[in-house]
Amino acid sequence: MNREVLKEKKRIVIKIGSSSLTHEQTGNLNLAKMEKLVRVLTDLRNQGKEVVLVSSGAIAVGREAVGIKEKPKKTSVKQACAAVGQAKLMMVYQKLFAEYNQLTAQILMTKYTMINDISRKNARDTFEELLTLGVIPIVNENDTVSTDELEFGDNDTLSAIVTALIQGDILILLSDIDGLYTDDPHKNPEANFIEYVETIDESLEAMGKGSNSMVGTGGMATKISAARIATNSGADMVIANGDKVSVITKIMNGENIGTLFQAHKDEKFKLINYISTKQYSR
Ligand code: GLU
């Protein structure tokens, strides 16, 4: 597929994970990187694109703020951390976006938002309105209220669902690896990089799970599942290394970076059935 077509994409969803937003050594926010991210996203807006950011980090930032070193196991602790962290995260985003006079909005979702017909319509209408107003919606799971039965569990899935909901043209997943490999590149030096995926078949899904699991090295299984949702709903999806946020600009300029999953809208794909039946776990 000629990547030049990506230049024409108008409605862009970008997902960034906690590990890309924080310093590995301390867990504190990487402000220099967030600043760059904000500049790149505002510049896309300035080109007339519509931009949605799906940002993780609520729990990580909250933990750091209240001084909890270990990943919390207890749900109420996790939720309290998310409540503290989400507000802090938004404060930083709003401060940085304000430098460029770019408005942002917070949208917090649970699985219920999607499964309930009225909530889903309300969410979609709100996204539409915000994008018309030129606002960049910043989305996360509502970790403060969502428990196991209610949660998407990971923002790869959430970002694909948001892309499907608003009929986005492209989803960019910024990860801590360069894209999809035939095997875990940390363990197998023979692993080959996959630049382009035309259709997601069983062998590809097996690559994400199976014995050669890459789950521990960037959650490849959830990314392939996200790709299924995004591509079936008519969006292209790119997995790229979020180490440098300038990759976003490069991808949108048609450069051959990361793994591209090609869109192929499938009218038979029923998003709500897929969400209701799939089990997610953190
Ligand atoms: N919603 C979670 C948070 O903000 C992150 C989920 C994920 O890392 O995918 O902490």
Secondary structure tally, helices: 11
Query: What is the H/E string?
Result: EHHEHHEHHEHEEEEHHEHEH
Uncertain stretches: 210-218
| DSSP E strands, number | 10
CATH topology: Carbamate kinase
End-to-end C-alpha gap: 34 Å
Q: Major beta sheet, specifics? A: 8 strands, mixed
GO biological process, one term: L-proline biosynthetic process
Function: Catalyzes the transfer of a phosphate group to glutamate to form L-glutamate 5-phosphate.
InterPro entries: AceGlu_kinase-like_sf, Asp/Glu/Uridylate_kinase, G5K_ProB, Glu/AcGlu_kinase, Glu_5kinase, Glu_5kinase/COase_Synthase, Glutamate_5-kinase_CS
Keywords: Amino-acid biosynthesis, ATP-binding, Cytoplasm, Kinase, Nucleotide-binding, Proline biosynthesis, Transferase
List the helices and strands and how they pair.
Blueprint: E1 11-16, H1 18-21, H2 31-46, E2 50-55, H3 58-66, H4 75-98, E3 104-109, H5 111-115, H6 117-132, E4 136-141, H7 155-165, E5 170-175, E6 180-181, E7 193-194, E8 196-197, H8 202-208, H9 220-232, E9 236-241, H10 247-252, E10 259-261, H11 271-277
Parallel strand pairs: 1-2, 1-5, 2-4, 3-4, 5-9, 8-10
Antiparallel strand pairs: 6-7, 9-10
Helix pairs in contact: 3-4, 7-9, 8-9
The chain binds glutamic acid.
Question: Please, could you describe this protein's structure?
Answer:
With 282 residues, the protein is α/β, with parallel strands linked by helices. It has helices spanning 18-21, 31-46, 58-66, 75-98, 111-115, 117-132, 155-165, 202-208, 220-232, 247-252, 271-277, and strands at residues 11-16, 50-55, 104-109, 136-141, 170-175, 180-181, 193-194, 196-197, 236-241, 259-261. It has a single domain, classed as Carbamate kinase (3-Layer(aba) Sandwich). It contains 11 helices and 10 strands. An 8-stranded mixed beta sheet has the order 3-4-2-1-5-9-10-8, sandwiched between helices. It has a two-stranded antiparallel ribbon with strand order 6-7. Helix 3 (58-66) crosses helix 4 (75-98) and helix 8 packs antiparallel against helix 9 (220-232). It starts with 10 loop residues before the first strand and ends in a 5-residue tail after the last helix. Bound molecules: glutamic acid.
